[in-house]
Description:
By secondary structure, the protein is of the alpha/beta class. It has a single domain (7-196), classed as Vaccinia Virus protein VP39 (Rossmann fold, 3-Layer(aba) Sandwich), CATH 3.40.50.150. It has seven helices and seven strands; from the N terminus they run αααβαβαββαβαββ. The protein has helices spanning 7-11, 16-27, 34-42, 58-65, 77-86, 124-133, 159-168, and strands at 48-52, 69-73, 92-93, 106-111, 135-145, 171-177, 190-196. A seven-stranded mixed beta sheet has the order 3-2-1-4-5-7-6, with helices on both faces. α3 packs across α4. The structure holds S-adenosylmethionine. Residues 6, 8, 18, 52-55, 58-59, 73-76, 79, 96-98, 112-115, 118-119 line the site of S-adenosylmethionine. S-adenosylmethionine binds at residues 6, 8, 18, 52-55, 58-59, 73-76, 79, 96-98, 112-115, 118-119.
Amino acid sequence: MTQPRTRWDLAGEANRGYAEKFARLVADGEDVEGEARLVDSLVGRGARILDVGSGMGRVAAALVARGHDVVAVEPDAALVAQSRATYPDLAVQHADILTASLDGGFDLAVAVGNVMVFLAEDTERAVLARLRSLLAPTGRVLVGFHPVDGPATARDYPHEEFTADAVASGLRVDACFGSYELHPPSPAYAVWLLSRDDAPATTTSYGHPLR
Ligand SMILES: C[S@@+](CC[C@H](N)C(=O)[O-])C[C@H]1O[C@@H](n2cnc3c(N)ncnc32)[C@H](O)[C@@H]1O
């Protein structure tokens, strides 16, 4: 079966602004690591992390720099090329998450920077179920996107619809924030932390029960 084209792919040149913006920010030495700092706080040292729709590589590269074992997957050939040129040490698999060849057992799957609102139409549940299938039993998913009024070429994805899709995909909603610095929930941006709906009780490394 042929893979449906993603909203990102269908928009083509209309999305060039993303690549140009982050190329400029990296060249200017600006901070492009906000998402990675949150991710780093959610996992132990040397975690196994999947970056879904890794784009020009900024999040995955920042996680590698923090000592994590990162698998980056990106279907846009131009972004894969930009990622390899900007971060030569970062390995990127040129693939759609629905067909990428991946071993499971991830501590965290990251789909940040509006990936969820650029998926192919009607593949949201398939993608969420694929992420769930790739998690370790205590693994989690971090998702961030504009639910409304995001990029012109993206869909709207209201909070209630995303929650329903996550639950239907075997995921549990652990938290929702309004930013990667954990501001309160907001209509403008949503950062979701999800876990498997069958996740076992877990403890911190200091033995305190979390659930
Ligand atoms: C706005 S870019 C964000 C890139 C990166 N996560 C970041 O924050 O810098 C959205 C990305 O989602 C990716 N994407 C859309 N559908 C996808 C899919 N089915 N599998 C993997 N990536 C996908 C696009 O190729 C694009 O790179």
